[in-house]
């Protein structure tokens, strides 16, 4: 047996033991919320309706696997009846605050289908991604991979258009629009009330129509002015109420209602559209809508003196 001894680890100076390097610790960045949760929606709401309303405030995300918008409508326990709740997922977190500011406590529909109820919009619970994001697919064909890449590129191109500067501009524009809408929240625009041919054939038609509209609207609430825009092919009139609530009620009652055989369109004035009227500047913002054009009054006086008045044919209100 050899008397040689193996060197001890302490004696090995040629290859000193290497220290195990620890990975640098990084603090995970908090995940930004990009979704809103909406409640009190109409029970017959559709994904297309929600897309139309909420896409005004940002780019709505799409499922890369299906290409469908990431909008989920929640149902009751039976799995069929809608609850009136929805989840909308945006691409950018900035869209969340914008949608909440602009849509919370507003009516989703205003018009014939309006119920008068307001929707509630709030940032969604962050746990939504666990449920909503598609599960990874283990195997995909080369064609499927190409399609996913193309969809991803398409969405990246869309996203590039919604930069921070544009979002700020959109937000500012929406605030201005809201200010205008509040300013003219007592003004209702009615369309298809008359035809230009009707006004040309009977110079008293404008007066009769204004009186009929005023009487119909005063059944809802006090009216301060009624303006007929006799140069508009769509038969446009504006009605200003004393109260904002009466204006909204007018829209609910009149939108879709028939007047002299024509289906009316009713909406609150947005403060942006300008309507043409003979003898005065265009615009639906005139406070003195009771004043008739001098030219029309002159013609009306001549008509009375001629004794050619025929029996009046008043407009008739009725529902569909």
From TrEMBL:
<feature type="region of interest" description="Disordered">
    <location>
        <begin position="1"/>
        <end position="35"/>
    </location>
</feature>
<keyword id="KW-0694">RNA-binding</keyword>
<protein>
    <recommendedName>
        <fullName>RRM domain-containing protein</fullName>
    </recommendedName>
</protein>
<dbReference type="InterPro" id="IPR000504">
    <property type="entry name" value="RRM_dom"/>
</dbReference>
<feature type="coiled-coil region">
    <location>
        <begin position="138"/>
        <end position="172"/>
    </location>
</feature>
<feature type="compositionally biased region" description="Acidic residues">
    <location>
        <begin position="310"/>
        <end position="320"/>
    </location>
</feature>
<feature type="region of interest" description="Disordered">
    <location>
        <begin position="277"/>
        <end position="320"/>
    </location>
</feature>
<keyword id="KW-0507">mRNA processing</keyword>
<keyword id="KW-0677">Repeat</keyword>
<dbReference type="Pfam" id="PF00076">
    <property type="entry name" value="RRM_1"/>
</dbReference>
<feature type="domain" description="RRM">
    <location>
        <begin position="186"/>
        <end position="271"/>
    </location>
</feature>
<dbReference type="InterPro" id="IPR034393">
    <property type="entry name" value="TatSF1-like"/>
</dbReference>
<dbReference type="InterPro" id="IPR034392">
    <property type="entry name" value="TatSF1-like_RRM1"/>
</dbReference>
<feature type="domain" description="RRM">
    <location>
        <begin position="34"/>
        <end position="126"/>
    </location>
</feature>
<keyword id="KW-0175">Coiled coil</keyword>
<keyword id="KW-0508">mRNA splicing</keyword>
<dbReference type="InterPro" id="IPR035979">
    <property type="entry name" value="RBD_domain_sf"/>
</dbReference>
<comment type="similarity">
    <text>Belongs to the HTATSF1 family.</text>
</comment>
<feature type="compositionally biased region" description="Polar residues">
    <location>
        <begin position="11"/>
        <end position="32"/>
    </location>
</feature>
<dbReference type="InterPro" id="IPR012677">
    <property type="entry name" value="Nucleotide-bd_a/b_plait_sf"/>
</dbReference>
